[in-house]
């Protein structure tokens, strides 16, 4: 299944199309999340990453032990060897993977700072749907406003 949005933008590369790449698992029903992975793709992920919506059945191959709720809380990056990074640790990992993000790497890799970045990531992830209540397809964002 190709991950696309309603504007018929270029499809994101799936793990099936590019085996051996890191896999970014994201909420494919959230327009903010989809825009974020498209931004990663634009910043160099096109040749280095593949993308998979957490709603895709094949997500169990990469994160079968994580629940749907856990995957809804934070982005997950799975390396080809199975190593996983989630939330702020995933973004921190991507600052080493994508050259345009290298400028952020020193800040995000300050020793003992990951708990602070994780707290900030969780706070932002919790409110990301408030940046536009019409950002999700159907009523998938509704669960965040109840």
UniProtKB/TrEMBL annotation:
Xref: InterPro entries: DCC1-like, DCC1_Trx
Keyword entries, A-Z: Membrane, Transmembrane, Transmembrane helix
Signal peptide coordinates: none
Source species, domain of life: Bacteria
Gene Ontology terms, MF aspect: protein-disulfide reductase activity
Parts of the chain that traverse the membrane: 101-121
Protein name (database record): DUF393 domain-containing protein
């Amino acid at each position: 299944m190709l991950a696309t949005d309603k504007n018929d933008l270029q499809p994101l590369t799936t793990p099936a199309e590019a085996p051996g790449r890191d896999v970014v698992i994201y909420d494919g029903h959230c327009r903010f999340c989809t825009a974020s992975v498209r931004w990663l793709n634009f910043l160099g992920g096109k040749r280095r990453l593949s993308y998979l919506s957490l709603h895709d059945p094949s997500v169990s191959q990469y994160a079968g032990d994580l629940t749907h709720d856990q995957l809804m809380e934070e982005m997950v990056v799975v390396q080809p060897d199975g190593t996983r990074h989630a939330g702020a640790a995933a973004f921190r990992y991507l600052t080493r993977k994508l050259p345009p993000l290298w400028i952020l790497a020193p800040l995000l890799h300050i020793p003992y700072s990951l708990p602070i970045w994780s707290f900030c990531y969780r706070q932002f992830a919790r409110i990301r749907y408030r940046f536009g209540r019409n950002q999700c397809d159907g009523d998938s964002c509704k669960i965040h406003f109840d």
